[in-house]
């Protein structure tokens, strides 16, 4: 469990870097022609977002280089070859991929809202949203091929981004498929989350190591840090959906249940004899009462599914922190460990 | 104008390479999990396609290396640095990008058919089609980062692919925007076509030069060859839509007119006082009679718009052929020139 102090440290580190990341987004993804397309590419990025993934990228770089956090220009960051690379461009590339996946996912899931504003396909239209996602996709590859890092490292980082995007697509396809599968096993669920969510954390953490020319063991350890903390992040998200009041959550509590989305909790509950599909008896979020959700959560708690999910997330976060031992012991590494804790303790 | 002999030569060269390209697609894009997603990624690729763009890539490589066509393994092709690169992987990457754009375009345009079979979003569903396109997108970048070419050249080729994809998105956005713009000028139309269609021909022709380590003048000339012949290809397509009987065209003649799609012909006609929007008086393809189309084509011919488009396409094809002078004089170069001719003389 993290203390409030840890959470404050994490949010402080994120906030400091978010400003720089947002400046870089403005610089690297300026308004261009056709105007409506570029407005749409920037719309979700401007609507908010913590910039957690780019923060992980920047912190991993700082820890690897063993420098005082925020003391070095991210856009001309020292590599192990003795030259510099624009790691901010790589960090923006990761954030831009995240944004592209959200835009396309919202079309597929027909979700109306994202970050408190209409989804891109609602604010604009589906064609523009598809194209905005596609444009962000190629922009991310433009950024990753243009960091100025040693070409072999730049090519390797770009390949990592490509395999990451393939895995994200596979994860999203599995997530959709699970909705109509009669039974999903725990391992299948975790595999889906690893593909859909965690690989981008893996890429966020490993990319600076690749670009800086770190050895393979370091790259692998950072990648696994991202994978494990990313899966933990998603499981914690599933717990929050059931346990946090709607007002704090910013969306209706229990929405995953109502939308029949598989989570580690429902998968575990089904394995333990719970009739998950019968937990709430409406398939429209508005029609389900708070009391029904309360009853469903009670049943999931009674069978141990919620505490199982909590424990799994904590365990993964702890595992992920051990991966950081490959890094020099410094402030940035300690902040990365705090982020892993934060991901499984944050309130929303 | 090409003779039948030239057309036969081109189609022969395309056919010979198509078989190898199709084998490579099978090897590099095998069925994987989730099955439905990978089926959807392969569906349009398996439905057909001439493989013109990868053929341009392979021929440009053969001409650059000054080797007998089809005499060298495309997957271990000699570069100017003395090592080898898998140019077939790059060629497949180009074809896969083409496939991704068709899948997403068909969703945006709500087109039901493609290559004589249902569009991917009709055969599967919109979510699967979006994801299949996204998967092909990342696969193309996996391929381009994995040719084994010198890393600096590999990175440069990957960057070219990324900027090409951005341009394609911009072109598609412009094409959509044109439908609701009161007036489109000739230069604006040509700019849209360059973005939407020609840049991928440019990338197809220039990529082998980049990967092989050719000098900048050669890369640029091949890129321009692709741009000019690509724009010519699209203009000829617009002419065919109006002048070829529906049976030969494989789709209803005059469909661009009925769907209010801007073409070089409509843009020219509007500039010359034709009420283009009033040419056919229905907005449903089925309701427009062959006689109405005939009358519309007559009016467009009378004002000189169709011959203007033909002349523009021929001129661009001739320009593109002059770009090839940068290449050694050999059989492959002569086939590339034949392709430029073929693009503006083919019957459908």
Task: Give structural attributes.
homodimer; 348 residues; mainly alpha; two-stranded antiparallel ribbon; 15 helices; 4 strands
In short:
The structure is a homodimer of 348-residue chains. Chain A is mostly helical and 348 residues long. Helix content of chain A is 69%, strand content 2%.
Biggest sheet strand order of chain A reads 1-2
**Number of helical regions of chain A:** 15
> Largest chain-chain contact?
A-B, 43 and 44 residues
Largest sheet of chain A: 2 strands, antiparallel
Descriptive overview:
The structure is a homodimer of 348-residue chains. Chain A has helices spanning 4-28, 35-46, 52-65, 87-109, 120-123, 126-144, 151-178, 186-212, 216-243, 246-249, 255-258, 264-271, 290-302, 305-323, 331-343, and strands at 77-78, 84-85, 113-114, 117-118. With 348 residues, chain A is mostly helical. In chain A, the strands form 2 sheets. Chain A has a two-stranded antiparallel sheet. In chain A, a hairpin with a 2-residue loop joins strand 3 (113-114) and strand 4.
